[in-house]
Amino acid sequence: MTILCVRFQLPPMYEAALPELLGLLAEFTPVVEALPPDGALADLRGAERYFGRDAVELASVIRVRALALYGVDCVIGAGPGPMLARMALRDARPGLTRAVPGGEEREFLAGQPVAALPGVGTATARTLCEYGLDTLGRVAAAPLSTLQRLVGAKAGRELHEKAQGVDRGRVVPNGVSRSLAADRPFDRDELDPDRHRRALLSAAGELGTRLRAVDKVCRTLTLTVRYADRSATTRSRTLKEPTAHSAALTRTAYDMYEALGLQRARVRSVVLRAEGLAPAEQASHQLTFDPVDEKVRRIEEVADRARAKFGPRAVMPGSLAA
């Protein structure tokens, strides 16, 4: 077990604390990959030799330090590779690291549902389950040719390897997430366009808050609308200029929604994704001389400072967007 997958129990939309917590991990190893909004991968191969402790023991030290220094608890999964560490994290609990020892990969994976494997989407899982391959143990036992016939040559080979515990992934130091998503599911299939728009307003406000918290802007906004019959529509739009401005994200989200021309559609959820992230300091801002726009931006700055001081619930996301 050399890889840790750590998820810090941060309040929602509070990625501003993540860089400091990544610094905590960097005290043990320089090979740390951020998994915003609240997680990270850490390769402890060198740390195990340097500190004379195994990964599980180091995980306990990391948890204690996170609590003592930042008041943040965490859950941790450990495994021989990133994929197994991620999957182990799902069974982890605060105060207890879930570890997959080397040599026990197939036993750990055998009873897992096929949808639990990273990279296996809903459609692929449905196809495999239709042929009785509903667990990773059954996938591992299936002939490679069968899997390739079902999901394709390359995907079938990768699926076969992963189901047998072959983890070729690696931790990429300083990896930066290229997208952020905000999902707004409805309690029941929703027909009301006004409720759809309110969900978009909330999601755009959340994305703007999260982008500003990590000093990023996005170049592209993607809208996915999921319907009651499990189908979905996805549209993307490149912004006129990279931004983290909630009002601009909201306007773009509304435009994409209106362009869909939905007529009495039963919507199950809407998802907004900010893509093409870049450092805010590298982005230019076109002056509009619009006093309303400038006032909203100033209010955003005040709200962001309030969240940083009093917590993420100090100002609700989306409440400032127009």
Commentary on this structure:
This protein has helices at residues 18-26, 45-51, 55-70, 82-89, 105-110, 122-130, 136-141, 144-151, 153-163, 193-213, 246-260, 291-310; strands at residues 3-8, 32-35, 39-43, 74-79, 98-99, 179-190, 216-227, 232-243, 267-275, 278-279. It is an alpha+beta fold and 322 residues long. A 5-stranded mixed sheet has the order 2-3-1-4-5. Strands 6, 7, 8, 9 and 10 form a 5-stranded antiparallel sheet that branches. β7 (216-227) and β8 (232-243) form a beta hairpin. α8 (144-151) packs across α9 and α10 (193-213) packs antiparallel against α11. The longest helix has 21 residues, at 193-213.
Question: How many DSSP H or I helices?
Answer: 12
Give the SSE string. Answer: EHEEHHEHEHHHHHEHEEHEEH
Structural class: alpha+beta
Distance between the ends: 50 Å
Percentage of β-strand residues: 15-25%
- Principal-axes geometry comes out as globular
| Strands side by side in the biggest sheet | 2-3-1-4-5
Quick overview of this protein structure:
This protein has 322 residues and is of the alpha+beta class.
Key descriptive features of the protein:
single chain; 322 residues; alpha+beta; five-stranded mixed beta sheet; five-stranded antiparallel beta sheet; 10 strands; 42% helix; globular
Layout: helices, strands, pairs:
Elements lengths: L2 E6 L9 H9 L5 E4 L3 E5 L1 H7 L3 H16 L3 E6 L2 H8 L8 E2 L5 H6 L11 H9 L5 H6 L2 H8 L1 H11 L15 E12 L2 H21 L2 E12 L4 E12 L2 H15 L6 E9 L2 E2 L11 H20 L12
Parallel strand pairs: 4-5
Antiparallel strand pairs: 1-3, 1-4, 2-3, 6-9, 7-8, 7-9, 7-10
